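Operator note (shift B, R.M.): manual run for Glyoxylate reductase/hydroxypyruvate reductase requested after the automated queue skipped it. Running by hand, logging everything below so the morning shift can see what happened. Input copied straight from the record, untouched. If output looks odd, do not overwrite the archive copy; leave it for review.
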Amino acid sequence: MPKLDILITRNIPGAALKLLRERFKVDIWPSDEVIPRPTLLSKIKDKDGVLCLLTDQINKEVLDKAGERLRVVSTISVGVDHVDTVECTKRGIKVGNTPDILTAATAELTVGLLISTSRRIVEGTHAARNGDWGAWKLMWMCGPTLDGATVGLFGLGRIGTAVVQRLKAFGVKKFLYNTANKKNNNFEKNLGVQFASFHDLLHESDFIISCCALNKSTAGIFNKNAFEKMKNSSIFINISRGGVVNQEDLYHALSHNIIRGAGIDVTTPEPLPTDHPLFSLKNCVVTPHIGSATEKTRMEMTMLAVQNLICGLDGTEMPAEYKQ
Ligand code: DGY
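Run finished. Output pasted below as returned.
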């Protein structure tokens, strides 16, 4: 039987590539940079499957170019906002993603952002380096603490749950949550979190963490209105997608002391241009979308996406098929 044709839109680790080459005729964009859109559109034609990243918009245009042979879209990410999953379902194309295995790494980075923003680690490092570190001063470089604080989670899926579990060790007094699925009594009992309306979550929390999926109902939800409901002393963290935040409003809130600080791992666009106003703020920590960036996690994500592609094309159960 002739081998099926697949497209890989980026360099992947050798072991993963070897596995795919044994099974399929592989067309790969052999680079660490994003595949140019015209190249993606021409290479996808007549492929049976595609292994892609969150930087590749797999929308109707790509699916049309692919033609009727395309049966599996496997993304090396848990987020699927770059894939038109509705259109894939309509066309009988299976979508695979990489949940669970990146939960711990992403929760870890969330804690890192909470601490580096509240305890001003990046600002302090710059001050020390720039010669602004004078005599030990009583109230210099102080910030808020998680100990005794109220933490509000917008989105309480796998990552949000793992964040709560980790933050318990920091003495957080109260966890509030708000999700698209509204109240979940199991969460409340097992995790010790309380449901709050979006308004109350913003109003009552000392730390607000966005760990929701990006979709129609969450796009731009952290806007002027939302920031104005937060405490002036609050810290905002975003580890989900840049699209949930109106960045102009965030800049305004940070530069006018409407909120105290922000730690964001995701932006719009990515990369965020180096002259973006958010980079000029001392109270904003920006990391370059590294939530899942441990070697172990990225390797596991790649291998899971490879297995999704193989099983999807074999017609067997995918280890992680994304279902609407
Ligand atoms: C994802 O997988 O969606 C993260 O944003 C990157 O690991």
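Quick read of the result: Residues 45 and 76 are 21 Å apart (CA to CA). The chain has two domains: 4-101+296-314, 103-286.
Leaving this for review. - R.M.
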